[in-house]
């Protein structure tokens, strides 16, 4: 079945461009459009898309709040949010990730990257390169704990090895790099990451990285 996509952007011309790109793919179907966050909420309820391509800066309700209401705590709907931003380090991107977005993509990304990003997010993965995760969190380190605060009790549910994996995820390592660092297979790393997400109630490795920083497990800027 085709991946159902909702386009959310306050610029009609951009929505038209995205629609043309996506409708050229057999496995993607644009089921609707919205010009702001409030319209997006209505469309999500009515159309039940798999992926919402979400602009950040829009009138009436921005993409961060719309993302929070679509994918935030207590939401069990199928929609995943892929945030679109004009700037490489948009000041709202971290807030969108905290709100439940599965990743972000630059608006000027090549068409093939846009298509692949939607497929990745629809499959339940995070569309955010490990290096970008690190840059984002380090750039906004002033908004995160210093690392001196006590770590939350939820970390007690993790094994020592799972804590190790979580720290490496937060520091921007890919599964292959984590496997090499810990001298285990990539399959083992994927299993550990899956356990971490399940135990901490997180959607993907992006939120796991944010959690590690916010909990104080990893200090911003630490190597």
Automatic annotation (TrEMBL):
<dbReference type="GO" id="GO:0000160">
    <property type="term" value="P:phosphorelay signal transduction system"/>
</dbReference>
<dbReference type="InterPro" id="IPR039420">
    <property type="entry name" value="WalR-like"/>
</dbReference>
<dbReference type="GO" id="GO:0006355">
    <property type="term" value="P:regulation of DNA-templated transcription"/>
</dbReference>
<keyword id="KW-0238">DNA-binding</keyword>
<dbReference type="GO" id="GO:0003677">
    <property type="term" value="F:DNA binding"/>
</dbReference>
<dbReference type="InterPro" id="IPR000792">
    <property type="entry name" value="Tscrpt_reg_LuxR_C"/>
</dbReference>
<keyword id="KW-0597">Phosphoprotein</keyword>
<feature type="modified residue" description="4-aspartylphosphate">
    <location>
        <position position="55"/>
    </location>
</feature>
<feature type="domain" description="HTH luxR-type">
    <location>
        <begin position="151"/>
        <end position="216"/>
    </location>
</feature>
<keyword id="KW-0804">Transcription</keyword>
<protein>
    <submittedName>
        <fullName>Two-component system response regulator</fullName>
    </submittedName>
</protein>
<dbReference type="InterPro" id="IPR011006">
    <property type="entry name" value="CheY-like_superfamily"/>
</dbReference>
<dbReference type="InterPro" id="IPR016032">
    <property type="entry name" value="Sig_transdc_resp-reg_C-effctor"/>
</dbReference>
<feature type="domain" description="Response regulatory">
    <location>
        <begin position="4"/>
        <end position="122"/>
    </location>
</feature>
<dbReference type="InterPro" id="IPR001789">
    <property type="entry name" value="Sig_transdc_resp-reg_receiver"/>
</dbReference>
<dbReference type="Pfam" id="PF00072">
    <property type="entry name" value="Response_reg"/>
</dbReference>
<keyword id="KW-0805">Transcription regulation</keyword>
<dbReference type="InterPro" id="IPR058245">
    <property type="entry name" value="NreC/VraR/RcsB-like_REC"/>
</dbReference>
<dbReference type="Pfam" id="PF00196">
    <property type="entry name" value="GerE"/>
</dbReference>
